[in-house]
Every structure is written in C-alpha cells, then in structure tokens.
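Quick one: structure tokens for this chain, please?
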Amino acid sequence: MRIFCKQHNHTVTMPSRKLPEVGARYGNWTFLGEYNGRKWHCRCNCGNDYWPNSCHLKSGDSRACRSCSNKTHGFNTRNSKLYAIWVGIKTRCLNTKHSTYPGYGGRGITICPEWRNDFLVFARDVGEFPGGAYTIERIDNNRGYEPGNTCWKLPYAQARNRRDNRWLTIYGKTMCVTDWCRQTGISSPCAYYRVRKLGWSWEAAVTTPSTK
C-alpha cells in the first residue's frame, strides 16, 4: 500500500496491516490516505478535513469533527437533556461502581453497541426529548436499551412497569395497585397502611371505602 507521508513529503510503501485502506470509515470520518506520524488525514461527513490521532480513531473516541460532535439538529448535544439521558443510560448499564448498576448492568440490562458508541445514532432512533417530566422507558423491562424497546413516558406511566409493582386481579380485571387506587379513590399510602400495618388483603385494601 503506497501512502503519501506529509512529514517527509514523499510517497512510501507501508504494510496494509499498519494503515487502513484509503476510504476506510471511522464513525463519520473517511481516511484519505495521507498521514503525519500518528495523525491520519480524514474527512468528516460534513466536508471538514482534519488530522485526528490514529489511536482515537481506532478506539472510537473520535467519530466526527468537533462541529458535528457538539451540534446536531440545531442543539448543542453536550448541553442537551437528551445527551444527559444518554450518559445516564450508559452509566447505569456499564459503570460497575455506580449505585444504580446492580439494578441495570448488574442484572444483565445493556445498551446496544450502536447506541453505546454513537450518541447521534441514539438521538436518531429515540427521537427528540419531549420535554417536561418525560423519561425514557424500556418497553420490555427484562431487555436492554435498544431500537424497538424504548419509548418516552411520563413518570406515572413508567412507574407502572417497575419490576417491584404489585398486580391485582379483581372482578376479572388485572391492574397494578396504583391504578386500582386511582379507580376506587383510595390513596396508595392508605392501601399500603391497611396491608402492612392492619393485615388486610390487597383486594380489601384497595376496594373498601375510606372513612375518617
């Protein structure tokens, strides 16, 4: 493989195992064939040319020019709510030292490689942050963060999918305790007090009218 070395201003033959083929892709970068020591001449998808460090390219630390990495679809990704959500997902799935890891990564919940390695792909697949109190939820609580298994929901809707929710079947209808309380007008604290302190059954706790 013949490569132009800008440092020495001449073309040299390099073993293909040390340098990629011209046109090789690293995220949004395309290798153009020139190199200067450990820096390779690349072109971003937006058209910007740059000389990223080859180690950063191979490790995935450099996936696009600074302009594309910091600004996408009109917002600054590193200051956006969606970026913070992405970082939070990776933290609880991958950081073994974080307090939330046991309930996520510790029990096999992962983030798919496409999302883990590229925020822009994650942003494209999950869509814009709806705003307000919305959070991202896994549809199947036993599967990881991946395309087709996430959606945006408000905290109340998301809480219904918690693994520790108690589900009750009354009159042939199955709902979680919170939904039964909403339907019968019994407060959740009252229902839990009846069960845990007074020894009531869950059915009686959520259906018996409250009196003072």
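The first strand starts at residue 2 and ends at 5.
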